[in-house]
Specification:
Layout: E1 2-4, H1 6-13, H2 17-27, E2 32-35, H3 36-47, H4 52-63, E3 67-69, H5 73-89, H6 95-106, E4 111-113, H7 117-120, E5 127-129
Parallel strand pairs: 1-2, 1-4, 2-3, 4-5
Helix pairs in contact: 1-2, 3-4, 5-6
């Protein structure tokens, strides 16, 4: 099971060939997941569009193809642990990214599909899959 990040979802709706190809490959291996933090980031772009109703439909159609995990107490605890560890190393990442990683790891998910290698590669417990 792979966790799909905002950067990947945006490239899919923009019909970038490499992301569409990767999504087709991932589809062969079972369901995909994301979380409510990514849903928020992804939908902000829809509401900022000129034809936001059309854009919102496109984005919600893509989201309907995956499992959306809530950011819950376990995810919050794991996120806090990760943030504290990164602070000790002086390698902080964005707050939303910490919440995303906490959600993943609290559910045993170790791979994120994202082009945000600058942040996610700082978390040694996960693997970043790019396209």
């Amino acid at each position: 099971m792979k966790f799909l990040d905002t950067s990947f979802l945006i490239d899919v709706i923009r019909k970038k060939a490499s992301s569409e190809e990767l999504l087709r490959e991932l589809d062969k291996h079972g369901p995909h997941v994301t979380n409510t933090i990514v849903v928020h980031e992804f939908l902000v772009g829809a509401y900022g569009a000129k034809d936001y109703e059309k854009e919102l439909k496109v984005r919600n159609d893509l989201l309907s193809r995956m499992i959306v995990l809530d950011f819950d107490k376990n995810a919050a605890g794991k996120s806090a642990q990760i943030e504290a560890d990164l602070r000790k190393k002086g390698e902080l990442i964005g707050g939303a990214d910490i919440l995303i990683v906490g959600t993943m790891l609290s559910r045993g998910i170790k791979t994120i599909v994202s082009n945000n290698t600058k942040h996610f590669n700082k978390v040694s417990e996960i693997r970043v899959l790019t396209w």
